[in-house]
Design goal:
With 505 residues, the chain is of the alpha/beta class. It has 3 domains: 148 residues, NAD(P)-binding Rossmann-like Domain (Rossmann fold, 3-Layer(aba) Sandwich), CATH 3.40.50; 105 residues, NAD(P)-binding Rossmann-like Domain (Rossmann fold), CATH 3.40.50.720; 198 residues, N-(1-d-carboxylethyl)-l-norvaline Dehydrogenase, domain 2 (Orthogonal Bundle). It has 20 helices and 11 strands. The radius of gyration is 23 Å and the shape is globular. Bound molecules: D-mannonic acid.
């Protein structure tokens, strides 16, 4: 966080357990005794999304009298959230915004915060604490460190580090495996691992990656007779999948000022969100869980159909709105969605993606897309297209590429799905030209810059991007997809969405 916020905090009264007692009556605050709450959940990746979603559900459970599920929030990278929240006793404001209305609620479920790079052993201590029965994650797609084909990126320097130095991990994989090894050695039951990121079959995906990591670890430790961790993780640890949904735009300084005025005290990091909130979770928690179903969480046997619908309809169209919006000069989702050309595009995109969803799973796609249209039109959110545009190489496989491939296999012509891939490539290429340099980022940025600098024919560029990002790897329809995308790029460059720069961005 910029230092001006920290210095302001020292001179202004701050949100805290004490000042929360005197907030205006319209603002909901935790009325339960926070000192009685014991930590039961360790959450990795305690960013705004977690604080708008899971932490609110857990806050409801604690308010209803559960005491065993306080959250220990862990940041795997920066100290920003800890620095903002610790002086506030872990309290922060959740602002639920719809066009014309803002409701504020102070959340109290985060009991303490740790910053992994500062003190990995404190994180391992929290993870091995027998009271910790669930570990949840929102670390973003790229932190799963998948290689282009989907397996673990074993060459990634942090994976190499965590295999060499298991006592001081850097990655989620390193922390989880080391903690599970220590719990096993101590005779403590394993925790349940609940992935809450936008990945397909997120629980199973993380399970597979951790087994792969543990196999490499076992191979190193074999000589010392400590092998068998991979088998333990495969047999004894539960990884339910879950589908999470709430739109959470990044907090701005204007939000901080407005919330401070409402509260009468400063909150260094309030979180902005929409009224809609959904969480669908596979019910597989051998060590127990909060009674989430009493607070609006849908507990199911198989989250797959819900997840596909969300990734392909919500996130797929979000990415479309982001890249086409950027290329057309729209800074926020609501403005892009109000553009008739983009609105019509999204309808056509949904029409292509819907036939790829599981049939007979009871999905009501008509109401779902109608609700999405309302959510995307929420003018109070100011959700920036550049925020969603980040990390496209990690997001598009499950949002767009999978539906496009299935659509081709079914004999359809996915013009709109493939245009989103083209718009992503065009938007990446437009940075530093018609879009500001660094307007959004991607783990492939330096490789993409080198590639674009070679000025290859369009189809060769697209094929190289597919290789870098692992899109459609080894798939029979890869070449067809590349040809669609290359044709769209040529059209986009000939003047599809206006590629003119726009001061709004
Ligand atoms: C968005 C998601 O930034 C993005 O990529 O598509 O964060 C989206 O807002 C959430 O998944 C909504 O649940």
């Amino acid at each position: 966080m910029p230092s001006d916020r920290t210095s302001r905090a020292t001179t202004t009264k701050r949100l805290s357990s004490i000042t929360a007692r005197a907030l205006p009556a319209s603002i909901a605050t935790p009325l339960y005794d926070r000192s009685r709450v014991v930590p039961g959940i360790v959450h990795l990746g305690v960013g705004a999304f977690h604080r708008a979603h899971q932490a609110a559900y857990v806050d409801d459970c604690l308010a209803a009298g559960e005491t065993g599920w306080g959250i220990t929030g862990v940041s795997l990278r920066s100290a920003d959230t800890r620095d903002a929240l610790t002086p506030q006793d872990g309290l922060y404001t959740l602002a639920i915004r719809s066009s014309g209305e803002e409701k504020l609620r102070v959340i109290g479920s985060i009991a303490s915060m740790l910053v992994a790079p500062e003190d990995p052993s404190a994180v391992l201590a929290a993870l091995t604490d027998p009271r910790t029965r669930i570990v949840t994650l929102t670390i973003t797609e790229k932190a799963y460190l998948r290689a282009a084909g989907g397996g673990l990126d074993t060459a990634h320097p942090d994976i190499v580090h965590d295999l060499a130095e298991p006592q001081t991990p850097k990655t989620a994989h390193g922390f989880l495996t080391e903690a599970l090894a220590r719990r096993r050695a101590a005779g403590t039951a394993p925790f349940t691992v609940l992935c809450c990121d936008n990945l397909p079959a997120n629980g199973a995906t993380l399970h597979r990656l951790l087994i792969e990591f543990a196999e490499l670890r076992d191979a190193k430790l074999d000589a010392k007779g400590d092998a068998g961790l991979a088998k333990h993780i495969a047999d004894a640890v539960a990884f339910p999948s879950s589908m999470v949904d709430r739109i959470v735009p990044a907090t701005t300084d204007a939000d901080r000022v407005r919330i401070a005025e409402e509260l009468g005290v400063e909150d260094a990091w309030p979180v902005m969100t929409e009224p809609f909130c959904q969480w669908v979770v596979e019910d597989d928690f051998p060590g127990g869980r909060p009674a989430w179903e009493q607070f609006g969480v849908t507990m199911v046997d198989d989250v797959g159909p819900f997840e596909d619908m969300k990734l392909r309809l919500l996130n797929g169209s979000h990415s479309a709105i982001a890249y086409l919006g950027l290329l057309s000069g729209h800074a926020t989702v609501d403005r892009a969605f109000a553009d008739p050309a983009i609105r019509a595009f999204v309808d056509a995109l949904w029409a292509e993606a819907i036939p790829t969803l599981p049939r007979n799973a009871g999905l009501d796609t008509a109401s779902y897309t109608a609700e999405l249209a309302e959510r995307f039109s929420n003018t109070a959110l100011a959700h920036r297209t550049a925020q969603i545009a980040n990390d496209g190489s990690q997001k598009l496989p499950q949002r767009i590429v999978a539906s496009a491939l299935e659509s081709i296999e079914a004999g359809a012509v996915p013009e709109h799905l493939t245009l989103v891939i083209a718009a992503w490539i065009a938007a990446c290429e437009a940075r530093g030209k018609t879009l500001p340099e660094g307007h959004f980022t991607d783990p492939l940025d330096s490789a993409l810059a080198t590639l674009f600098g070679r000025n290859l024919p369009t189809e060769e560029t697209v094929a190289a991007v597919f290789d870098l990002a692992g899109f459609a790897k080894d798939h029979a329809s890869r070449q067809t997809l590349i040809e669609f995308v290359a044709t769209h790029i040529v059209h986009l460059k000939q003047g599809g969405p206006a590629l003119a720069s726009n001061p709004e961005l």
